[in-house]
Specification:
- The complex is a heterodimer of chains A (about 800) and B (about 160).
- Chain A is of the alpha+beta class and about 800 residues long.
- Chain A contains 19 helices and 29 strands.
- In chain A, the strands form seven sheets. Chain A has a seven-stranded mixed sheet with strand order 3-5-1-12-9-10-11. A six-stranded mixed sheet of chain A has the order 7-15-14-13-8-29. In chain A, strands 18-26-27-28 form a four-stranded mixed sheet, with helices on both faces.
- In chain A, helix 9 (about 335-340) packs across helix 10, helix 15 crosses helix 16 (about 610-620) and helix 17 crosses helix 18 (about 770-785).
- By secondary structure, chain B is an alpha+beta fold.
- Helix content of chain B is about 35%, strand content about 15%.
- Chain B has a five-stranded mixed sheet with strand order 2-1-5-3-4, with helices on one face.
- The chains are: A alpha+beta (about 800), B alpha+beta (about 160).
- At the A-B interface, helix 1 and helix 17 of A face helix 2, helix 3, helix 4 and helix 5 of B.
Chain lengths: ~800, ~160
C-alpha cells in the first residue's frame, strides 16, 4: 500500500474538541452498567476451576469422585479429558505446536494456579466446594522461574517438544549499528530489570455461554475479546463452525489490555455449556484473575549500550533483551514489535541493534498491559539517556532537546522501518517546563536540600505509538513473507430513522473505561449535524457483526472516527439525492450545512436531515427510481497506513504510524530511611494530535500515570524460586490508592496527524508509558542513586541508599 | 447448609428472606434481591467496589454475611436516583468525569456520600484521604476528588 494522502482538516468543529459529559456515564452512575456478572439466565449453572498447587509437576491422576458426590454438581471436566471437548487455545505463534496451550493443563502443570479441572454446579459456592474435593496426584518437577537460569543447559524444560526454553530468539540490526558505535565518542552501558505488573481491572473476566444443540449455535456473553475479526480462532478452539459462534459484548469494568483477547474464560464456559446442555457462567474470582488470567505484563532483563558524540548527539542503541513469557506465549513476541515501533524515542538516532530472547518459565503467561511492551522500551531508553546526561555532565532537559526530531523532518522514518507521522517535541517540552515551573522548583529544591530534605526532579520525553496493524505480528516468522499485509479494521453502521434520529452500531467490545460511545456520538454529531446526546449507541453481537478490532494499541478513537466519517459520507450522498428531488434542485447546487441540505445562495430553500429521512423511509415511490428505502450506511475503516517487513527483517515496515508524544516533570521527596516516595508536584503535557474530548483525554493521562506509578513503585506479580506466587490478592499485589497518587497538572499540545480524520492520534495508553521514566529520574535525583530494577519498592530504595553509603 | 430468616430495610423498603449462613451480603443484594449496582471486585475486603451504607456507615458487603445485616437499614447505589433525576453527587461525578469504566463508581459514590454527610465542608485533602478506602483503577482519583468537592458545595447550597 502507498502513503495516504495528506488531509486538510476542517477549521471549524462543532463537537470535536469539546469536553461534553460522557454518553456512557448515566447507566454506570446508577449502578446499571449491565456488566457480565449482572447477566443471568434461567437454568444457568456456574463453574469454578480447580487450580494447580504446584508450579511444575506431572499430573499422575485426578480423583473427582468426592466432588461428583456433592449435591448440585452437574459435570466435571479435568486435565484427563479436556482434549475430548476442545482444541488448543488460539496462539499467534511462532511455532504454536511446540508450546501447545489448552484451557486446562494437559499432562503436566506449568505454573501455580493453572487449571486442572472445572466443575459446573447449580451455584458458584457449590462448584467451589466441589473443586476443593478434587484430588490431584502430582509428580513434582524442578520449578523454574528465573529467566536467565532458564537459558542454561541443565535447566528443566517447560515444554519438552520445544527442546529448549526459548520459543524465539533473533538478532536484529536496523541501520549501521557497528558503524555508529565505532564513530561514538562515548558509550554508556547498563543492566536493567522491568518487573511484571498487570492491568488488574477491578472487574475480573467473565462469560455466560449457551449452546443450542438444535441449531448448533454457541452464544457467549463476554466482557473480553475485542479482536472480533479473529474470532474464527476461538471457533476452532470450541469446535464450532465460525458462523455458529456469536459473541455478545457487555461493558467491562476496566481492562487496560487484560481483557483484550482473553479467551480462556469464554472457552471454559462454552465447553461446560456444551457438556451440560445448560447455560453456564464462569466469573473469575480475583485469585483466578491474578494467578491464571493470562495477562501479566512484560517481565524483562536488558543489557543496553547507548552511543553518542561528546557533544551529546545520540547515535545508536544496542539492546540485548531477555523476556520471561511464563508458561505459554499467546501473542508471540508482539510486545517487542511495540518497543520497536518507537525504538529511538523522540530522538534522531540512525541505528538500533535488538537481540531478543523470549524465555518460557513456570509463571503465568504474559498478555497485554497498557503499552504492550512499548512502555518498557520507553523506560529503558530514558534510563539510558539520563545515564548519558550524567556521563557527559549535561542537563537532562538539554540532552533531550538537542536530539529531538524536528517538526520539518516529518514524516520521519525510524531505523526499524516504522514512520512517525508528525510532532513538535520541543513545543511539548517548553510547555511542560512552564506548566511545572521547573526553574522555580530547581530553586526551591536547593533551599529544601539545604534543610536536609531529599528532593528530586525528574523529566522524561516519550513517544506513544498508536493504531497497530496486525502486520507487526508477521515480523517474527522466519519465512520471508509469512502473510500479506493485514488491515486491523474497525466498522460502524449509522442509521438515520424515519424521525431523523441517529443510531450508531459498534462491532467490537463494549465500553471498558475508554469512551467509545462518547467518541462515536461526538463524531456522528460532527458529521451529521445532530447533538451528541441524541445519538443512540448500540453494540452488535459478532455473528451479525462487521470486521472489528476494538480498543488496543491506542487505536479505537482514530479508527472508529474513520468508520463514522465513511458511513456519514454515504448517508449524506444519498440524502443529497433525495434533497435535490424534494427541492427540485440540481444536486450540484446543494450545500450541506447545519444538519441539512440548502440550495447554494438560497438558504431558505433547505431540507433538514429529518425531513429527508422521512422521505427516504416512507415515500420510496415518490423518489427517483435508483433510491432504495431507508437511510443507513456501514463503513469498514481499514488501517490507513501499513506496509510489510522486508524479507531480511532489517526493516519492519510501517505498522504503528500515528505517534503521539509527552513530557512529564515530577518532583518528589524521598525518605531515605523508609524508602517512602511523596509526590510534591506532577506535570504531564501530551500531544495526541487533535483532542476529541479534553476532559476524557485528561482522565486517561491521569489514570495511566497512576498505573505507571504502580508499576514503578509497588506492583509486581512475584514468584519465589519454588514457583510460589507471593502476590495472590490485593493485600500483596498493591494497587495505588488515592493517598499514593499525585494531583496532576495536565496540558495538551495539538499537532494534528496529517493522515487521520480530524488529525487525532492515540492517547489511551499515555501516562503509563511515561510515568516510570520521570519518577525514577526524580528518585535518583533525590537520593543520588540509580534505579535499575522495577518496581522500586521502599525496600529496594532503602537497599540502594545503604549500598551507596 | 443451614439457613436463617432475616429482615432488612433496603433503600427504605422492608425485605424478609431466608439466607444460607455463608451467603455474603453482597451476593444477597446482587443475586437474591437483584440490586446488581453493588459490585464485587476482590471478595477480600480490599477494593471497596462492594461498599454499601448500613445505618449511614460504609461497609464492605463482600466480607459481611447477610445474616449479620438482620435488622439493618441498608442503602445501595440504586437509592441515589430512584427517578429520572440523578443525585447531586452523581451529577457532579458526571460533570467532572469522575468515572471511566464505572465499576468502582457505586462504592465510590456511597463512600463519598458518607464523607459529605460527616463533613459538608471537607477539603481536597480530606476528600482524598476519605476515598483512599476505595480503589479505582481507571481515573487516578483526581477527577473523583474534584467531583466530591463540587458535590459537597452543591449539597451545602441545597441545604441552604
Amino acid at each position: 500500500m502507498t502513503v495516504p494522502e495528506v488531509r486538510q482538516h476542517p477549521e471549524h468543529l462543532e463537537w470535536v474538541g469539546k469536553s461534553i459529559p460522557r454518553v456512557e456515564d448515566p447507566k454506570f452512575l446508577r449502578g446499571r452498567g449491565n456488566y457480565i456478572d449482572d447477566y443471568e439466565v434461567p437454568n444457568m449453572l456456574e463453574v469454578a476451576v480447580a487450580r494447580s498447587t504446584m508450579a511444575h509437576a506431572k499430573i499422575l491422576s485426578i480423583d473427582t469422585s468426592a466432588a461428583e458426590a456433592v449435591p448440585g454438581v452437574v459435570a466435571i471436566v479435568t486435565s484427563e479429558n479436556v482434549t475430548d471437548h476442545v482444541n488448543p487455545m488460539p496462539d499467534f505463534g511462532p511455532s504454536p505446536d511446540k508450546h501447545t496451550w489448552y484451557c486446562l493443563a494437559v499432562d503436566k502443570v506449568r505454573y501455580m494456579g493453572e487449571g486442572v479441572a472445572v466443575v459446573a454446579a447449580t451455584s458458584r459456592a457449590i462448584a467451589e466446594d466441589a473443586a476443593e474435593l478434587i484430588e490431584v496426584e502430582y509428580e513434582p518437577l524442578e520449578p523454574l522461574t528465573d529467566m536467565l537460569a532458564a537459558l542454561t543447559d541443565d535447566a528443566p524444560l517447560i515444554h519438552e517438544a520445544l527442546e529448549s526454553n526459548v520459543p524465539f530468539h533473533r538478532k536484529f540490526a536496523f541501520g549501521d549499528v557497528d558503524g555508529d558505535f565505532a564513530a561514538a565518542d562515548v558509550i554508556v552501558r547498563d543492566t536493567l530489570w522491568w518487573g511484571r505488573s498487570g492491568g488488574q481491572p477491578l472487574e475480573t473476566v467473565g462469560a455466560v455461554a449457551d449452546y443450542d444443540s438444535a441449531t448448533g449455535m454457541m452464544t457467549i456473553h463476554v466482557n473480553s475479546m475485542s479482536f472480533t475479526h479473529f474470532l474464527f480462532l476461538l471457533a476452532n478452539t470450541l469446535r464450532v463452525p465460525s458462523n455458529k459462534l456469536d459473541l455478545q459484548p457487555h461493558p467491562s469494568g476496566g481492562s487496560f489490555g487484560a481483557k483484550f483477547f482473553e479467551v480462556k474464560t469464554a472457552t471454559i464456559a462454552a465447553m461446560m455449556a456444551r457438556v451440560t446442555g445448560r447455560p453456564v457462567k464462569f466469573m473469575q474470582d480475583r485469585l483466578d484473575n491474578i494467578a491464571n488470567g493470562d495477562h501479566h505484563g512484560s517481565d524483562r532483563y536488558y543489557e543496553v549500550e547507548l552511543a553518542a558524540k561528546s557533544d551529546g548527539t545520540l547515535l545508536s542503541t544496542r539492546y540485548k533483551v531477555v523476556d520471561n513469557y511464563g508458561a505459554y506465549i499467546q501473542f508471540g513476541v508482539g510486545q517487542h514489535g511495540n518497543s520497536l515501533a518507537q525504538a529511538v524515542g523522540p530522538y534522531r538516532m540512525s541505528s538500533i541493534g535488538y537481540d531478543l530472547t523470549a524465555v518460557l518459565t513456570n509463571k503465568c503467561q504474559q498478555g497485554a498491559y497498557r503499552g504492550f511492551g512499548s512502555e518498557v522500551g520507553n523506560w529503558i531508553l530514558e534510563r539510558m539517556v539520563d545515564l548519558m546526561a550524567a556521563e557527559l555532565d549535561m542537563d537532562p532537559f538539554e540532552i533531550r532537546r538537542m536530539n529531538f526530531i524536528q517538526p520539518d523532518q516529518f514524516p520521519y522514518f525510524i531505523p526499524t522501518g516504522n514512520v512517525y507521522d508528525s510532532g513538535d517535541y520541543e513545543a511539548v517540552l517548553k510547555k511542560t517546563m512552564e506548566l511545572s515551573d521547573y526553574k522555580g522548583w530547581r530553586k526551591r529544591q536547593a533551599e529544601m536540600r539545604a534543610e536536609g530534605r531529599h528532593i528530586g526532579i525528574g523529566v522524561c520525553t516519550c513517544q506513544e505509538r498508536s493504531v497497530f496493524s496486525a502486520t507487526e505480528f508477521w515480523f517474527w516468522f522466519d519465512e520471508p513473507v509469512a502473510a500479506p499485509v493485514t488491515s486491523a479494521p474497525e466498522s460502524v453502521t449509522l442509521k438515520v430513522d424515519a424521525m431523523g434520529a441517529v443510531t450508531a452500531t459498534l462491532y467490537s467490545n463494549a465500553s471498558w473505561g475508554n469512551s467509545p460511545e462518547t467518541m462515536v456520538a461526538q463524531f456522528a454529531a460532527e458529521e451529521l449535524g445532530v447533538k451528541p446526546e441524541d445519538v443512540s449507541v448500540v453494540y452488535a453481537g459478532s455473528n451479525q457483526g462487521m470486521p472489528a478490532t476494538g480498543p488496543g494499541g491506542s487505536r479505537f478513537t482514530i479508527m472508529v472516527g474513520g468508520a463514522v466519517e465513511g458511513a456519514a459520507q454515504s448517508i449524506r450522498a444519498k440524502a443529497a439525492k433525495i434533497a435535490a428531488h424534494l427541492l427540485e434542485a440540481n444536486e450540484d447546487d446543494l450545500v450541506w450545512e447545519d444538519g441539512g441540505f440548502a440550495v447554494r445562495g438560497s438558504p431558505d430553500q433547505r431540507k433538514e436531515l429529518a425531513e429527508i429521512a422521512l422521505a427516504a423511509h416512507m415515500f420510496k415511490h415518490s423518489l427517483p427510481e435508483e433510491i432504495e428505502t431507508g437511510l443507513e450506511a456501514s463503513h469498514v475503516q481499514d488501517h490507513p497506513y501499513t506496509t510489510m517487513p522486508n524479507p531480511e527483517r532489517t526493516n519492519l515496515g510501517v505498522f504503528y504510524p500515528f505517534v503521539g508524544h509527552a513530557s512529564h516533570v515530577v518532583v518528589v521527596e524521598v525518605d531515605p530511611e523508609t524508602g517512602r516516595v511523596e509526590f510534591l508536584d506532577y506535570t504531564a503535557v501530551h500531544d495526541c494530535g487533535t483532542v476529541v474530548n479534553p476532559r476524557s483525554v485528561g482522565g486517561q493521562v491521569i489514570g495511566g500515570t497512576v498505573q505507571g506509578l504502580g508499576s514503578t513503585l509497588f506492583e509486581e506479580f512475584l514468584y519465589d524460586e519454588d514457583g510460589v506466587l507471593r502476590t495472590p490478592s490485593f493485600a500483596e499485589y498493591l494497587i495505588p490508592s488515592a493517598l499514593d497518587s499525585p494531583t496532576l497538572r495536565v496540558g495538551h499540545n495539538e499537532t494534528p496527524s496529517p493522515y487521520t480524520p480530524y488529525g487525532v492520534k492515540g492517547g489511551g495508553e499515555a501516562g503509563r508509558m511515561m510515568a516510570p521514566s520521570a519518577i525514577c529520574a526524580a528518585i535518583d535525583d533525590a537520593l543520588g542513586i540509580r534505579i535499575r530494577r522495577l518496581p522500586a519498592t521502599p525496600e529496594r530504595i532503602v537497599e540502594m541508599v545503604d549500598a551507596k553509603d | 447448609m443451614s439457613t436463617h430468616d432475616i429482615t432488612v430495610t433496603i433503600n427504605g423498603a422492608a425485605t424478609s428472606a431466608s439466607v444460607e449462613s455463608r451467603r455474603s451480603l453482597a451476593d444477597f443484594l446482587r443475586h437474591d434481591v437483584g440490586l446488581v449496582g453493588t459490585h464485587i471486585g476482590c471478595e477480600q475486603g480490599a477494593c471497596g467496589a462492594c461498599t454499601v451504607l448500613i445505618g449511614g456507615r460504609s461497609v464492605r458487603s463482600c466480607i459481611m454475611f447477610a445474616v449479620q445485616a438482620d435488622g439493618a437499614e441498608i442503602q445501595t447505589v440504586e437509592s441515589l436516583a430512584p427517578g429520572a433525576e440523578m443525585h447531586p453527587l452523581q451529577e457532579a461525578f458526571r460533570r467532572h468525569q469522575g468515572l471511566q469504566c464505572g465499576f468502582c463508581t457505586p462504592g465510590m459514590l456511597l463512600r463519598s456520600l458518607e464523607l459529605i454527610n460527616d463533613n459538608p465542608n471537607l477539603t481536597a485533602e480530606e476528600a482524598r484521604e476519605g476515598i483512599s478506602s476505595n480503589m479505582c483503577r481507571c481515573t487516578g482519583y483526581q477527577y473523583i476528588v474534584d467531583a466530591v468537592l463540587d458535590a459537597a458545595a452543591e449539597m451545602r447550597a441545597e441545604e441552604g
